[in-house]
What does this fold into?
Amino acid sequence: MSNLRIVCQHCPSVVFNNKRPDVVKRPTMSAMLHSETQEDLETDDFFLLKDPFAFDNVSVSKPLANNYKLLACADCEKGPLGYYDSKNNEYLLLCSLEKN
It folds into this structure.
């Protein structure tokens, strides 16, 4: 299995450079922030991480709606790069950040 390297879109910092994680479908960031329920939400593809130490360089926001936290670059503080779902202990990094 190859490595996945994600570089911040706003600065040269490497956010993730590790073994390629599984891809999962989860609610989009917009959907999960604006919905009271988790039923029939629009989904997006995310890289699923369970360990925050798998990241090279990420910051986590204060809790938002439904106890979700946004992920951002720890150097420039820009994002969001994905979100943390505290209920399921999942760090979800947007697949769209991968450069082919």
